[in-house]
Amino acid sequence: MKSLPLFLLLFVTTALNAQSPAYNPQVNLLDVQHYRFSLTLKDDTDRIEGSAEIKLHFKQSSNAFFLDLVKNKAGKGMEVSNVTLENKPLTFSHQDERLNITLPQASPAGQELNIVVQYAGVPADGLIIDANKFGDRTFFGDNWPNRAHHWLPCVDHPSDKASVEFLVTAPDHYQVVSNGIQIEETNLDGGLRRTHWKETAPLPMKVAVIGVAPFAVQLAGEVQGIPVSTWVFTDNREAGFIDYSQAVEVLEWFHTNIAPYPYRKLANVQSKTRYGGMENASNIFYFENSVNGKKEREDLIAHEIAHQWFGNTASEANWYHVWLSEGFATYCTDLYMEAKYGQEMLAERMREERFAVIQYAARRKAPIVDTTVANLNALLNTNSYQKGAWVLHMLRREIGDENFWKGIRAYYQRYKESNALTADLQRVMEEASGKSLQAFFKQWVFRAGHPELKVTYRFDGGENIVEIFVEQLQNSPFSFPLDIQLLDENKKVILEKTLSINKAREEFAFPIQGYPKEIKLDPGAWLLFK
Ligand SMILES: [Zn+2]
């Protein structure tokens, strides 16, 4: 996702997460294969009625397990009426955020079970039920990071992926958009309509949602037979159709340059997400003020489309490695903008991202993978986004364009429909480049901060020698290549070198023609430094 500017986020409250962010204990016990959620939505109440058919695969023998589901407290949350296995009731207890279920006998390892959970309640979070800015009532799933279990019983962790279908019954003045393809839309008696969407690719629950509103819908285009559609609020019909049509060109670029698009359609949806954009699988939600008819959201669209590969399909194995989603989406956007607008656009974007990283580091000293963070939303920080992008950018410099692209594609191919940690990315990149990247990943991903440089030079006119002194001011030295240029009084480059820096203080001497007046560090924007 992409965060909104900070002043908007101040109004957002964050639910307390009872789980350890690192992993959900259920993922060792079972693996959900498929969810089929049937939901009834109404106009006169925010109470939803749900039925979840869940196909479970047991990895270990057990007669008990739990699903994540927030229990009703003070009128908000879900109340479970029954849990069944082959139409026979199961014993369950529901406390706080856990629905504990007991089986009549232990399920052996390898067994698959289909259970059904019937429940109802007013979602405290996760499904945003609210009027849009035009006063129309809307419903939007907004699950990141683990807010799905406010409205859906599930294993709410990105390492357990499952195919998902939603059958929504709602008043017929709404349209419903969701993951996958629409397989039914039927008007029912009583002014109701049933809409059924089904995704066959396994998804992490963070990106499995519905969007329900009076929409204006347009087919914006197709990419290799994949329909790209726009879903905007009816009052934003004209402007929204213009703005979101940019997704066609963006999808084409990623489809061509990363790998075939992993889903069967792409819907771009104006929504009530709390984020700037939320990369729901094949069903991207953008914040409601993203529409103005001026096509000003190209990089937001590119960011969310990049997530369809990185984050949704190749996903972080736990939240601490969320830079594998956000750093990738940020840098893939930079790559798209570079391809479309040229190298100087890339350098400009990298300078802006570097500025953000330096500002952030001044406030908070932490590595990208920071296991001290307790509030998952705090992981949506500059380290995960901009510094993550900078890691990929410097990795590209380290191993060269060809190996970098080879590695990025290989990483996706190996971890698509699966999960990865930073060490997995490192391994793939080492294979692609034939180079050890241990020190690179250690210093940029697992260590806080960045080089803080003081670079001076001394010119001896008699000998035509220039001496360059590089000092790293931070605690312990980083290793990196530093590009420098010396310019004369006419701004002409009279010396251009790449210095290999490994120590706290280093000196270099070069013969030079001309009289240096100025030294430029990192003219191409390839190094994260201050
Ligand atoms: Zn993102």
From TrEMBL:
Q: Which residues form the signal peptide?
A: 1-18
| EC numbers, comma separated | 3.4.11.2
Give the reaction(s) catalysed: Release of an N-terminal amino acid, Xaa-|-Yaa- from a peptide, amide or arylamide. Xaa is preferably Ala, but may be most amino acids including Pro (slow action). When a terminal hydrophobic residue is followed by a prolyl residue, the two may be released as an intact Xaa-Pro dipeptide
Give the required cofactors. Answer: Zn(2+)
Cite the Peptidase M1 membrane alanine aminopeptidase domain residue spans from the record.
246-444
Recorded family membership: Belongs to the peptidase M1 family.
Protein name listed in UniProt: Aminopeptidase N
Give the originating organism. Answer: Haliscomenobacter hydrossis (strain ATCC 27775 / DSM 1100 / LMG 10767 / O)
